[in-house]
């Protein structure tokens, strides 16, 4: 989807963020994403908002699927490189294949802590916990803007070994973090907690591919939208100087294969993976 499309979607999603308990008569971002991905964990109100967004931004569904495909490619590659534990922040509703399923297909004992601020995610994740091995999977109801709470949570400490490398997944999350919440400090806090060899996985919305569209969207939606598109240079700064693995920071469809058509103007997302050095 174009950056303007993504901002329109973020605007409508922002209006539907539920309070601390689940309301089936109010749209939920997690359930709307589930609808776009072809899941079943949504209500009529979620479908209505999702279809309204699709009417304005027809490439939204394709962009969401492309972003998720990047997530799963990155997890599989890291697992093949020896990383067998992941911290997935902003995980959304369970949708197969999930991160733990991809990781465990490579490393059977892989461990994953899922984190999301939407209470609907934890409610649906109980089934995931029951069907999986609770020793290897945890689901945390927490806010990405408070990374120390995520790191200190008993379930995080139970599942993840902080003395071994961890894959930190911030996929389509940081563009919902306002500048005053200091996304770089959020990333720094997370990565400082884990040893060398840990990896940071980011996808992030940008205006680089469609500046006219994002200017229009900013003028129309800036007052109500929490979506913060950033330039490629600004997104690269979120990696805190850690070396990006090949092919670097690229349009989301082109990681890790630059021969794939970028479709950058459609999707408006950069993606990259960095490894924490010694």
From TrEMBL:
Record's keyword terms, sorted: Methyltransferase, Transferase
Top-level taxon of origin: Bacteria
Keyword Transferase carried by entry: yes
Keyword match Methyltransferase: yes
EC identifiers of the protein: 2.1.1.-
Gene Ontology annotations of biological process type: methylation
GO molecular function: methyltransferase activity
Top class in the EC scheme: transferase
Alphabetized Pfam families for the sequence: Methyltransf_19 (PF04672)
Listed SUPFAM superfamilies: S-adenosyl-L-methionine-dependent methyltransferases
Protein name, per record: SAM-dependent methyltransferase
Taxonomy of the source species: Bacteria, Bacillati, Actinomycetota, Actinomycetes, Catenulisporales
């Amino acid at each position: 989807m174009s950056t303007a499309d993504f901002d329109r979607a973020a605007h409508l999603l922002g209006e539907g963020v539920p309070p601390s308990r689940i309301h089936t008569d109010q749209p939920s971002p997690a359930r709307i994403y589930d609808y776009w991905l072809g899941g079943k964990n949504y209500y009529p109100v979620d479908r209505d908002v999702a279809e309204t967004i699709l009417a304005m931004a027809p490439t939204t569904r394709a962009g969401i699927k492309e972003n998720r495909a990047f997530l799963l490619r990155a997890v599989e590659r890291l697992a093949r490189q020896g990383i067998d534990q992941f911290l997935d922040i902003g995980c959304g509703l369970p949708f197969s294949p999930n991160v733990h399923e991809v990781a465990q297909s490579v490393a059977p004992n892989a461990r994953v802590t899922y984190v999301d601020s939407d209470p609907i995610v934890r409610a649906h994740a109980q089934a995931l916990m029951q069907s999986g091995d609770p020793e290897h999977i945890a689901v945390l109801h927490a806010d990405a803007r408070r990374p120390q709470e995520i790191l200190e949570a008993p379930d995080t400490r139970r599942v993840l070994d902080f003395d071994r490398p961890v894959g930190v997944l911030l996929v389509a999350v940081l563009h919902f973090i306002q500048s005053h919440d200091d996304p770089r400090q959020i990333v720094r806090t997370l990565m400082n907690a884990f040893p060398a060899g840990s990896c940071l996985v980011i996808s992030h919305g940008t205006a680089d591919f469609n500046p006219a569209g994002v200017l229009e969207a900013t003028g129309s939606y800036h007052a109500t939208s929490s979506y913060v598109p950033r330039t490629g240079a600004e997104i690269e700064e979120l990696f805190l100087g850690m070396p990006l693995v090949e092919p670097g920071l690229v349009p989301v469809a082109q990681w890790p294969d630059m021969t794939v058509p970028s479709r950058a103007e459609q999707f408006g997302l950069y993606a990259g993976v960095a490894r924490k050095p010694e």
